[in-house]
Write a structure and sequence with these properties.
The chain is of the alpha/beta class and about 400 residues long. It has 16 helices and 13 strands.
Length: about 400
């Protein structure tokens, strides 16, 4: 019997164990271990690397040089001298990763975001092995980012997106045309092990609490302030509205801005910040409505989980979300920052519980078709088999 093929996965770092890391862990768990042996590399220890080791996955830490320890486009603020130093550090990091890959004789390399691709892409090219760029969520191609995206697209053998519309919403039109044959859409699967198999009874008395749940790290990209602005005039007429934000604080300044808005508009009795929670699915089953306000997403894990839980939702029409949610059929779509639209749909959901129940049922049925983790992992394993020619 042949030995499993070593395949290197560059693990995304996150302070909290949220969307990207959870998708990555799902992928590693469902890799066909009879055919593939995952070798995971990350630049530092994290909740994700702990989870990988708990599952007996070989995990290697390859630290960054200090100049690369920047996030949220911090490198764009560097002087030209520091940008050149960063470029040199990138090349050196690729060389170190190449040594690891040669030691394990890997047959392919996987990365999650454009920074990861720049850290591993040259190594894959020098090794002559296929490189998978799993896009996830990326910022649009503007300014220097447009050039970095072009480099990443040039280095990658395959670019996996979460929805077929993602290339057009992220990359420059010229790049989309140039690299169109590299794109393949594979919607992320949802781990439903902890989601109840029965439909939740969300019936409530008109004056009972109407619980709205938002899941995501507290930061401008997730745009929690939009939900606060939307409920501000509603809670006076509907005091039963209760909003829960589940997620760690990624931006202290933005969190302070949210708290200041709450205090200025007397919303403290209507809004709760729960912090990091590992019982998101239970919170979904206890809620009446899910609201996603983000400015930028791929297809968030929370969307699939909410749909599987039969939790009706309102979401911004960004990234791959419009391919998943059919407006007024399996949820409600709003434009980014459209506070009046969000107000109107929250009020509609509050006043029309029977319609809300129908939408929750339909969304669950769609999730079972589109977010099957078995189907997702099957397509991913087949992609790896094709790239490794087995």
């Amino acid at each position: 019997m042949s030995q499993p093929i070593p395949f290197l996965f560059y693990a995304p770092y996150s302070k909290s164990f949220t969307g990207g890391p959870r998708v990555f862990l799902n992928l590693i768990e469902r890799l066909d271990k009879t055919q593939f042996r995952p070798i995971c590399v990350s630049h530092c220890e994290s909740l994700l690397t702990n989870a990988l080791r708990d599952r007996q996955i070989e995990t290697i830490i390859l630290p960054f040089p200090k100049i690369l320890e920047v996030y949220n486009e911090g490198v764009f603020a560097y002087s030209w001298i520091d940008k050149l130093r960063s470029l040199k550090a990138l090349v050196q990091y690729n060389s170190r990763l190449e040594q690891i890959a040669r030691r394990y004789q890997v047959r392919g390399i996987w990365g999650r975001n454009v920074k990861s691709i720049l850290l591993i892409g040259l190594a894959a090219r020098r090794l002559g092995v296929p490189l998978i760029w799993d896009v996830g969520m990326e910022k649009p191609s503007r300014g220097l980012m447009r050039h970095l995206h072009w480099i990443g697209l040039s280095l990658a053998s395959v670019v996996v997106t979460e929805a077929s519309s993602q290339p057009q919403t992220i990359f420059d039109p010229k790049a989309v045309r140039q690299f169109e044959k590299k794109f393949i859409a594979i919607a992320p699967g949802t781990n439903v092990d902890r989601i109840t198999t029965s439909i939740i009874d969300r019936h409530r008395e008109p004056t009972a609490p109407f619980k709205i749940l938002n899941v995501g790290t507290i930061q401008p990209r997730k745009n929690q302030l939009l939900l606060l602005r939307a409920i501000q005039p509603l809670v006076q007429q509907y005091p039963q509205i209760q909003v829960q934000f589940a997620g760690s604080i990624a931006d202290e300044l933005y969190f302070s801005e949210c708290k200041a808005f709450i205090e200025a508009h007397n919303l403290s009795e209507s809004v709760s910040f729960l912090g990091w929670r590992d019982d998101i699915l239970e919170l979904m089953q206890q809620s009446n409505l899910f609201v996603l306000c983000s400015h930028n997403e791929g297809v968030p894990c929370a969307i699939g989980e909410a749909m599987y839980a039969g939790l009706p939702m309102i979401a911004t029409a960004i990234g791959g979300i419009p391919e998943i949610i059919s407006h007024k059929e399996t949820g409600f779509l709003i434009e980014p920052d459209a506070v009046t639209q969000l107000q109107d749909w929250i009020e509609f959901c509050l006043l029309n519980p029977s319609i809300l129940e129908e939408i929750g049922t339909r969304s669950r049925e769609v999730a079972q078709q589109k977010f099957s983790i078995v189907g997702w992992s099957s397509r991913y394993n087949e992609l790896l088999r094709q790239l490794c020619q087995i």
